[in-house]
Amino acid sequence: MRAEEIVFPTEAGLYCAPGGFHVDPLRPVPHALVTHGHSDHARPGHGTVTATRQTLEIMAIRHGEDFADSRRIAEGPMRIGGVTVSFHPAGHVLGSAQVLIAPDQGPRILISGDYCRSPNPVCQPFEPVACDVFVTEATFGLPVFRHPDPLAEMARLIASMAEFPDRPHLVGAYALGKAQRVIALARAAGHDRPIAIHGALKRLCDYHVEQGIALGPLVPATEPGDAQLILAPPSAFASPWVQRFRDPVLAYASGWMAVRARARQRRIELPLVISDHADWPQLTATIRELSPQEVWITHGAEDGLLRWCEIEGIPARPLRLVGYEDEAE
């Protein structure tokens, strides 16, 4: 079978015909394979959801225990319909995985989901997997996106807290993955004081601790005590919640903070370029490392990566999937 006969885009998202399932479907389907717990990839309402144990547990936390009719933990290679499927770490957030689809006859197709190659203390690192067709995201698929060392960005935050000891530092960080990564980076940088967190972050921070990820002392943002570092979802910055803090330094942890206009639009005083997605050098290095026969691009800056593949002599095509909103960034 040709790759296009095995996996192809539909209105519901990527569909594997011989397996009878969708990967990260955009609407409810009978059987969904889910790469990770961000809500633009992990939607409720499916018949069966197959994912890593951590992703299934995160979906239950976020959507309730009845998020699907049934669930199946991805452990080792699995036979689904006429294909063998396996899940491999993606380095994006806790529980995130790439999905390898291996038909009995035909090319091996690796669907990356969202992925990152930078070291991340709160999830397993990306695992390179041999494949014939690599289906990659391209959230930061333009040469301008070259993310700095996350520890260097954290050093900027620590330095700002030292320079302005009387000003609370409010960091906008998405509830799943980014908040916990910022906390872990702060600990790695030597910040051992309590960190205050918005109530919307508590359950997922608790879950990371339950999974053995050390986050240090955390306190509620409603009772921060002497905590100078406070984390909240970015939406809180547009609500009355932020007014409880006197003269705060507003910071935001996101790959998009490399675009200074976005920081200005959000009135961010301290933009922190900390991303859980691959930047341009990581995207292109990953394609070179895997050396697939074809590259398919699911979402993001498709045209930039498509042009790079053309220059490199790598057959590539965009899938033009819509509905992935880069929730975590």
Task: Please describe what this structure looks like.
The chain is 24% helix and 26% strand. With 329 residues, the protein is of the alpha/beta class. It has 2 domains: 3-144 and 277-318, Ribonuclease Z/Hydroxyacylglutathione hydrolase-like (Metallo-beta-lactamase, Chain A, 4-Layer Sandwich); 150-272, Rossmann fold (3-Layer(aba) Sandwich). The protein has a 7-stranded mixed beta sheet with strand order 7-8-9-10-11-18-19, with helices on one face. α2 links the parallel β5 (46-51) and β6 (68-73). Its EC number is 3.1.-.-. It is an enzyme of class 3 (hydrolase). GO terms for molecular function: exonuclease activity; ligase activity; RNA endonuclease activity. InterPro entries: MBL, RibonucZ/Hydroxyglut_hydro, Xnuc_lig_assoc.
Q: Please tell me the CATH architecture of the largest domain by its name.
A: 4-Layer Sandwich
Low-pLDDT windows of residues: none
In CATH terms, the superfamily of the largest domain is Ribonuclease Z/Hydroxyacylglutathione hydrolase-like
Distance between the termini: 37 Å
Q: What is the succession of H and E elements?
A: HEEEEEHEEEEEEHEHEHEEEHEHEHE
**Helix/strand/pairing category:** alpha/beta
- Using the coordinates above, name the CATH class of the largest domain: Alpha Beta
Placed side by side, the strands forming the largest sheet appear as 7-8-9-10-11-18-19
Q: What does the main sheet amount to?
A: 7 strands, mixed
Annotation, overall tally of beta strands: 19
Overall geometry: globular
Q: What is the count of DSSP helices, taking H or I runs of 4+ residues? A: 8
Q: Which band does the percent of strand residues land in? A: 25-35%
| Amount of helix | 10-25%
EC number: 3.1.-.-
Enzyme class: hydrolase
GO molecular function: exonuclease activity; ligase activity; RNA endonuclease activity
Keywords: Exonuclease, Hydrolase, Ligase, Nuclease
